[in-house]
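The protein record passed on below.

***
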Amino acid sequence: MMSAANANPALPADWRDFLALTKPRVMTLVVFTGLCGMLAAPVPIHPVLGFTAILCIALGAGAAGALNQWYEADLDAKMKRTQGRPLPAGRMERQSALHFGVWLAAFSLFLMYVAINWVATLILAVSILFYVFVYTIWLKRRTPQNIVIGGAAGAFPPLIGWAAATGDVATLPLLLFALIFLWTPPHFWALALFVKTDYANAGVPMLPVVAGERTTRIQIGLYTLPMIAAAAAPWPLGLTGMVYGLTAALMSGIFLAMAVQVATRRTAPEDGMIPEKRLFKFSILYLFVLFGALVIDRWVG
């Protein structure tokens, strides 16, 4: 059966299609965590340079998203939630997406190197290459651990933001990297639980598809524990103050309660809002609040 991308000739793409290639919703969280990593650094950065660094992070993330959609156009055509993207919908040629992604990545790295520093440029390059080659090309179609390992790709922005301001890497941004890395499996598996059919139809070996819902729920609960430890660690280590520490404790407690509910659920709830959907939505808020608290804590301190 031919996909929508191959069944019809591509229509002329407009700017909205190129914007869609960059996955703007995902980019929002990437940019925010990168910005917070920069603002939490002990060294101030000139506003113009700071804006440039964040722009480079956004362009790099957009490039990775475009290359991901270029490579996965066949998978996207088989899943309901992605069939409307430019390539499976037939609004753009695959080669256009490839060229757009490559040039966007090259420009983001060139600008970061010229305007900021080589450390931030190197980490940005690693994040793009990791997402495209390790997660998208190597892991996504081969193993249910794709999210576990591939989660590192989305954990780099705080490191990049910190490095843009300081020119180096320290313990706090490494803990932020660990937080996002450990947050990714429960966040994404919560989503995978209620779109499992999509992944099954596309032949993607997500954990709920190959190991079942019960195993996935247990894994969500298990990964939540080290994630909470990574979120809490900066306060007792003296890297942050009370504002961040108390916020992390409160938000992590709520996250844990939701994760336990997901891990132990066996029947459909009466309210129609299944626990995994609640956890997925809250997990996004969780990162936004924690990183926002980190910046406020730094300013108060």
About this structure: Confidence is low (pLDDT under 50) at residues 1-9. Residues 15-167 form a domain with the Tetracycline Repressor; domain 2 fold (CATH 1.10.357.140). The longest helix spans residues 275-300. The chain has 15 helices and no strands.
